[in-house]
Amino acid sequence: MGGGGSALRVCADHRGGINWLSLSPDGQRLLTGSEDGTARLWSTADGTCCALLQGHESYVTFCQLEDEAAFTCSADCTIRKWDVLTGQCLQVFRGHTSIVNRILVADNQLFSSSYDRTARAWSVDRGQVAREFRGHRNCVLTLAYAGAPCVEEAVAGGLLVTGSTDSTAKVWQVASGCCHQTLRGHTGAVLCLVLDVPGRTAFTGSTDATVRAWDILSGQQLRVFREHQGSVICLELVNRHVYSGSADRTVKCWLADTGERVRTFTAHRHSVSALKYHAGTLFTGSGDARARAFDAQSGALRRVFRGHAFVINCIQVHGQVLYTASHDGALRLWDVRGLPPPRARSLSRLFSNKVGCAAAPLPPA
């Protein structure tokens, strides 16, 4: 196992914890959203701060970075769109009546979920609500989108899947705003979800310590993944394998099509708060303030990254650099060169079909 080493760079400009970290599709920029009410844009080339995004009146809960625009949501009940070159706020999306938890930009639409028990679809260009999705009985925590033509003509316009603290997930017809299916079976809050869009399957993780697979068209529960001893906080879907990070201090790898557990990743000293699969390596972030690199095939721990003071809320990997964002307010860059390459026979398993993963931010460890 490799040693921890020191970070390539520590970016400590934020004055509050970092709740989320987003990488632009072209890989040139990072976006961080913080408890200090601001977001910052960073260059992946040298780790320098390119722009400070100021305007929210409360903490930033989540962010998404596109090549030409940045999007942030906040406890101030708003969403903002920003110019990535100037840092200027281009649009404020108003309508939610409580904390906005998650946002998702897809097919020129902006989707959001909130403590106000709703999800919404917005026109990215006009900043207006195009559709409201009402039906959850409690906070909507997470969401994912399956766009046309991945789903049949009966749901042209795509499907939005939401997870809530009311123990259900719901599938919505985006075009009409109608609830297509309610996914019932969990006995605790749905904290995270990922979609296998070609397979028309949703995977949900819950405080009931299970992962469940669902047919999003019929609403049928396909299988239950039972073995975790604590809340399932984050999910990653990679080539028919589901990785689940839990408050029980482990990550488990499951066969998506059967629910069979094939591997358990241990060594964490606190909840696993973030997951990212990259080129045969599974990177994890934990409440023990450390990131780890595991060989995804064998489960062997390859490297520990030490330096943060509190829980790691989000991780990204680009090129040979691991980026970790923590409740301690720092963004750290780590050199991941020298990690063992994946075995030749497993190269076919390196391509991810992950659509989205949302995990609830944790308090400081």
Please describe what this structure looks like.
With 365 residues, this protein is mainly beta. It has a domain at 10-94: Beta Barrel (Lipocalin). The chain is built from no helices and 32 strands. The protein has strands spanning 9-11, 18-23, 29-34, 39-43, 49-53, 60-65, 69-74, 79-83, 89-93, 100-106, 109-114, 118-123, 129-134, 140-146, 159-164, 169-173, 179-183, 190-196, 201-206, 210-215, 221-226, 232-238, 241-246, 251-255, 261-265, 272-278, 281-286, 291-295, 301-305, 312-318, 321-326, 331-335. It has a 4-stranded antiparallel beta sheet, with no helix packed on it. The protein is globular. Mean pLDDT is 90; it is low at 344-365. Keywords: Repeat, WD repeat. This is WD repeat domain 86. InterPro entries: WD40/YVTN_repeat-like_dom_sf, WD40_PAC1, WD40_repeat_CS, WD40_repeat_dom_sf, WD40_rpt, WDR86-like. It comes from Capra hircus (Goat). Pfam families: WD40.
List keywords for this structure.
mainly beta, about 50% strand, globular, about 375 residues, Lipocalin, 4-stranded antiparallel beta sheet, about 0% helix, WD40_PAC1
Class derived from helix and strand content: mainly beta
Assign the CATH architecture of the domain at 10-94.
Beta Barrel
Number of helices: 0
> Which blocks of ≥5 consecutive residues have pLDDT under 50?
344-365
Spatial shape? globular
What is the makeup of the main sheet?
Answer: 4 strands, antiparallel
CATH class of the domain at 10-94: Mainly Beta
Mean pLDDT: 90
- Quaternary state reads single chain
- Strand percentage: over 45%
In short:
The chain has 365 residues and is mainly beta. It has a domain at 10-94: Lipocalin (Beta Barrel), CATH 2.40.128. Helices cover 0% and strands 50% of the residues.
